[in-house]
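User: Show me sequence and structure for the first protein, then do the same for the second.

Assistant: Starting with the first protein.
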Amino acid sequence: MARGRIAARQFVGLPHAVIQSESRSQELVEEYLRQHGVKRRELLHSPHFLSIPLVIASTDLIVTVPLPVGELFARIADIQVLKPPFPIPAFDLKQHWHRCQHDDPANRWLRATALELFGEGDSGLPR
C-alpha cells in the first residue's frame, strides 16, 4: 500500500520515467498533467511496464503508475510507493473473453487472478 504522499515540488523536480503505452490509465494521467500545466523532467520513455521496476530501483527516476501496479513493482524491486500530489482520475478495468473460454480452468484462473490484483468489490466470479 502507498505510504505517504510525494510533494508537488518533489514530483515536478525529480526526473521521471514515462510509460508510453496505449493503456487507459497512462492516457488519463498524461491528459490530467497536460490540462493542469504540470511539467515534468522526462528522462526516460518506455513502451513497456515490465522494464520499469528495475530501472526505478537502480536510478533516481520516479514513475507514475496505477497503485496496484506500483504495489506489484514494490514486491519485485526495492521501490517506495507514494501517493501523487494530485488526484489521479479513476477508470474501469474490464476483462473480455470469448464465450467458448468461459469455463476453461486456465482462463478462469487468469480472470480471477486479474480481479484479485486489480479489482474492487464482488465480481460474482468463483474463486
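Switching to the second protein now.
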Amino acid sequence: MVKYLVQIGVGFIFLGIIIIFLAGMLEAEKGESKVAVGGIIGFIPFGFANDKRIFWFMMIFTAIVFFFGIITWMWR
C-alpha cells in the first residue's frame, strides 16, 4: 500500500484540478469564488478562507486528517 501513495496523491491533485475547472465552467456567470487553505504545523492547525463556513469545514477536515495520521503513525 505504501508504494502506491505517490500515485494516489498525484491522482488526487489531478482530480482537484478537474473539479476546479468544471466548477469554474458551470458557475462562470456568478463571478464569486470561495477559497480555503488549511494545514498543520506541529500539532497546531491553521487555515485561511474568505468564507466562515468553508473555514470551519477546512479546520474540521484538517483535524480529522491529523487524527487519522496520528492513529496510523501509532499503529506502526
